């Protein structure tokens, strides 16, 4: 049987022990049995997010938590800053537009990360900015900004800082409370090793206060309803029950190791992928100083169609990596995720298949050099 290994930046590989939990008979959610699980989930999420803030969950993909942030924090005509360093930064702008929010867009060249000073400059002039929206790992370009430095700037103003950590949570360092990040959005299907269907959001007291003034239309994604429910270890609506049960186990796995101990583990995988790419003559799309540890975007060599390369790896070899997104990168990069349950042997397999597919497409290099380079990093 052909393998079906996901090395894509969401959804990512689901380990067998979590598949088993997902397949358990359903229980009812308005029961002490489920509420005990929910309580552990809220505590477990606070641990991985490194926060004491309230955490709310929704039955949605990651974008649901992003929409919740915009709908609850702001009102039509409010001013905000969005940082567009790729496809997912653009999503913040689109969400602001959908709610009539006046977004000052900071456009960054793809592959680069925003300079904190650029955000500071806008905040110094536009005193009535209410929120700054950034992305921890910009999955489309595999870059990461200096969130801590941005938080240092934003916390001196009346604006709140909102971070999309949907792909970054797990591999990329994030100290929500220590850095002073007001709102963090994430989801269960990337670093937390599950199929999609649960998103979550942490909300600081400063952001909760701002939310009280919001007049944007909202119903399902309501901080107010969620907070009332959380206090009783409940959710306002039917949660994704089996996913929440599995999320509890996933969080226990992560928290048993300690998320801070996972950061170097994924950093090593990212390093191995970069070394492998270089060893077969390829280059990395992002500047190394801004590279995320959740995903790596490798430039496809001239003369090779990146779309065909990704398709061959998937259809012939059963390895799913992601291609490039948007006008800028379609067909031009392959993106390998190193998040969640992906381990070094998955990475070695992925690199071997990348080599095999490139070879079949006529790219000239020393077969095996990428695998050897990655092995050396893993053994260092
Ligand atoms: C995956 C992802 C999202 C959310 O996408 P969904 O399809 O809604 O889960 C948002 N932001 C980033 C950076 C992502 O990687």
Structure, explained:
- Helix 14 (344-360) runs antiparallel to helix 15 (369-378).
- The strands form 3 sheets. A 7-stranded mixed beta sheet has the order 2-8-7-6-5-3-4, with helices on both faces. The protein has a two-stranded parallel ribbon with strand order 1-10. The chain has a two-stranded antiparallel sheet with strand order 9-11.
- The chain has 380 residues and is α/β, with parallel strands linked by helices.
- It has helices spanning 16-22, 32-49, 62-73, 87-98, 116-125, 147-154, 176-179, 205-212, 223-230, 241-257, 259-279, 306-315, 326-329, 344-360, 369-378; strands at 5-6, 54-58, 79-84, 102-107, 129-135, 160-164, 183-187, 199-203, 295-299, 319-320, 333-337.
- Strand 5 (129-135), helix 6 (147-154) and strand 6 (160-164) form a beta-alpha-beta unit.
- It is 44% helix and 14% strand.
- It folds into 2 domains: 5-10 and 259-378, Aspartate Aminotransferase, domain 1 (Alpha-Beta Complex); 16-257, Aspartate Aminotransferase, domain 2, CATH 3.40.640.
- It is globular and about 60 Å long.
- The structure holds pyridoxal-5'-phosphate.
- The site of pyridoxal-5'-phosphate (PLP) has 14 residues, from helix 3.
- Pyridoxal-5'-phosphate binds at residues 9-10, 61-63, 88, 135, 137, 139, 164, 166-167, 187, 196.
């Amino acid at each position: 049987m052909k393998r079906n290994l996901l090395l894509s930046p969401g959804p990512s590989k689901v380990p067998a022990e979590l598949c088993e939990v997902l397949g358990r008979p359903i229980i009812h959610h308005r029961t002490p049995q489920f509420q005990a699980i929910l309580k552990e989930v809220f505590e477990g999420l606070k641990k991985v997010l490194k926060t004491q803030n309230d955490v709310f969950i929704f039955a949605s993909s990651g974008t649901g938590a992003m929409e919740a942030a915009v709908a609850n924090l702001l009102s039509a005509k409010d001013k905000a800053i969005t940082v567009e360093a790729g496809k997912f930064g653009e999503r913040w702008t689109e969400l602001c537009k959908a709610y009539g929010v006046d977004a000052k867009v900071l456009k960054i060249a793809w592959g680069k990360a925003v300079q904190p000073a650029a955000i500071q400059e806008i905040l110094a002039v536009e005193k009535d900015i209410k929120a700054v929206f950034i992305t921890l790992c910009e999955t489309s370009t595999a870059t990461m900004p200096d969130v801590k430095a941005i938080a240092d700037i934003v916390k001196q103003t009346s604006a709140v800082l909102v971070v999309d950590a949907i792909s970054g949570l797990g591999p990329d360092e994030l100290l929500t409370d220590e850095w002073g990040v007001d709102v963090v959005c994430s989801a269960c299907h990337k670093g937390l090793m599950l199929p999609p269907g649960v998103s979550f959001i942490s909300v600081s007291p400063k952001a909760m206060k701002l939310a009280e003034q919001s007049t944007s239309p909202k119903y399902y994604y309501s901080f107010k309803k969620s907070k009332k429910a959380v206090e009783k270890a409940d959710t306002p609506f039917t949660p994704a029950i089996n996913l929440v049960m599995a999320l509890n186990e996933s969080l226990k796995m992560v928290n048993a190791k300690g998320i801070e101990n996972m950061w170097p583990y994924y950093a090593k995988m990212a390093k191995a992928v970069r070394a492998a790419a270089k060893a077969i003559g390829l280059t990395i799309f992002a500047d190394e100083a801004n590279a995320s540890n959740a995903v790596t975007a490798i430039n496809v060599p001239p003369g090779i169609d990146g779309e065909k390369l990704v398709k061959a790896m998937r259809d012939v070899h059963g390895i799913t990596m992601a291609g490039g997104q948007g006008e800028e990168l379609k067909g031009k990069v392959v993106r390998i995720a190193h998040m969640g349950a992906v381990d070094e042997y998955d990475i070695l397999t992925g690199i071997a298949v990348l080599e095999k597919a490139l070879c079949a497409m006529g790219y000239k290099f020393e077969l095996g050099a990428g695998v050897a380079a990655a092995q050396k990093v893993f053994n260092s």
